[in-house]
Specification:
Strand order of the largest sheet: 1-2-3-4-5
Radius of gyration: 15 Å
Number of helices: 3
Distance between the termini: 22 Å
Number of domains: 1
Structural class: alpha+beta
Shape: globular
Number of strands: 5
Oligomer: single chain
Length: 128
């Protein structure tokens, strides 16, 4: 799980909501820091990660998810552990491709729990 991040600042009094777009040069999914920042900042309504392999991941908040901010690092660790365990129990190996599949399942599981919309677009094709 990735922990690097870039801090950004904005005038909270002049902004009603934000769409945050950033790149992921290693073509990875959202980091825990991305997920926590998205959860904790009510003004961020959409988070987009543009990968160098042509994949675009995005998260969007629903009206219901704006009312709660219950995501914690401990919860992320628990969801990741459960996702990885279920993936392996399903007879899958955690190869390079498997790690990406686990991370997608992980972000989907967090999104469902938080009431967010998660989407992956590959070269113009939407795969919800």
């Amino acid at each position: 799980m990735e922990t690097n991040h870039v801090e950004f600042r904005y005038n909270r009094n002049k902004v009603n909501w934000l769409i945050v777009i950033h790149n992921h040069p290693n073509s990875t999914l959202f980091s825990d820091t991305d997920l926590l920042t998205f959860s904790e900042d009510a003004k961020i309504r959409c988070l987009v990660a543009q990968c160098h392999n042509g994949v675009v991941y995005w998260l969007g908040k629903t009206a219901a998810s704006l009312r709660s901010c219950t995501l914690t690092r401990r919860l992320l660790e628990d969801v990741y552990g459960d996702t990885l365990e279920a993936y392996i129990r399903g007879g899958n190996s955690v190869s390079s491709k498997g790690k990406l599949e686990v991370m997608e399942l992980y972000v989907k599981a967090v999104s469902v729990r938080q009431g967010w919309v998660f989407n992956k677009t590959i070269r113009g094709e939407s795969n919800e």
